[in-house]
Amino acid sequence: MKHSLRLMATALAVGVTTAAGALAQSAYPSKPIKIVVSASVAGATDQVARALAQSMSTALGQTITVENKTGANGVLGAGVVATSAPDGYTICFCSTFTSPSTTKQTYTVDNVIPVTRAYELMPMIIVAADSPYKTLADLVAGAKQKGGAFGHTGANGVLHLAFEELKHRAGFDMVPVAYQGETPILPDLIGGRLDAAVVSTLLAKQQAENGRVRILAGFGATSTIQGVPTVAASGYPHLVFSTWGGVFLPLGTPAPLAKQVWTAVQAALRDPAVNQRIVNNGLLPILDDTPEQFLEYIRSSNESLRKTMRNLGLNPV
Fold first, then answer.
1. How far is CA 129 from the centre of its chain?
2. Lower CB density within 10 Å: C or N end of the chain?
């Protein structure tokens, strides 16, 4: 019996040593890596993902391509990664990850491995440059009189729920209109088919500088654009919402490999060029976020969204 146990222990030791050796000798990455971005081209999430890809490619000595897969609050992009081989060659850079309690979806955070959060984003309320609404108070007063419509990037996503909570608190109504990505919102907003929209800081800032839109307020705890007030400071205390961008891997990715990806991403986030891209997009950089911290943050955020939905009487879509 003792002899059998010794043989088993020896076999296990050999197996562990062989597996560790194979991982060490795999020289990751030995082929091109793909980063799937769950947001439209040229948006804040896309720009940061491409800056990360360039920095990581230089550091790792391997080609990294970026593929945009938009729609369904990031679910489509998550699906690509969730169904990919857990070998580190398909990475998701997502801008949100809602739960089944907010959006009916096939893939959730339980189907992937959260690696790290890269930035935080404060949603902005914008109107067309020629809109009669000069302030958030103007928008609320006008909506109380004649309603209207507002654009966002996904039912029950952070941008949508932020504005729905504002409607509830301020006592007005506007019809929500969902778009796949932010860019398609602009023609309808500028063309007068939308009265307002909730978008990323980057899009709001760019279009305001181009004279096409006016920024009324931001949903952050503090303003990330000079001269733009927060919703909370505009008469709605504690009305704060934010979203984020982060890195995910397929479920089943070996822990040592996930650690390599985490290390590579953190090195890229410390690259001055990447950091500047994040800041220039009006985002708040986040460094050294661990997988455990990231997962807890997502679960806490989703619980807050679920509470908001319950209060507003909204159902998953």
1. 27
2. N
Angle (CA) 158-305-96 rounded to 5° is 45
Between 2 and 102, the more confident residue is 102
User: What whole-number distance in Å separates Cα of residue 199 and Cα of residue 239?
Assistant: 16
Task: Say how far apart CA 301 and CA 98 lie, in whole Å.
Answer: 9
* Count of Cβ atoms closer than 10 Å to residue 135 Cβ: 13
The answer to whether 205 and 279 have CB atoms below 8 angstroms apart is no
- Residue 106 pLDDT: 65
Q: What pTM value is reported for the model?
A: 0.77
What are the angstrom distances between the C-alpha of 97 and each of 2, 58, 152, 211? 51, 29, 16, 32
* Phi, psi angles (nearest 5°) of residue 232: -60, -35
* Under 8 Å between Cβ of 167 and 136: no
Cα(257)–Cα(261) distance, integer angstroms:
6
Closest CA to 196 of 141, 137, 163, 149: 149
In angstroms and rounded to an integer, the radius of gyration of the C-alpha atoms of the chain is 22
Q: What is the average pLDDT across 275-299?
A: 92
Q: Which residues of 89-107 are buried (b: 16+ CB within 10 A; e: fewer)?
A: bbbbbbbbbbbebbbebeb
Question: In 66-181, which residue ranges form alpha helices assigned H by DSSP?
Answer: 75-82, 136-146, 158-170
Give the β-pairing of 175-178 and 33-37.
Answer: unpaired
Q: Which residues lie below 8 Å from residue 178, measured CB to CB, with a gap of 6+?
A: 151, 152, 153, 154, 155, 160
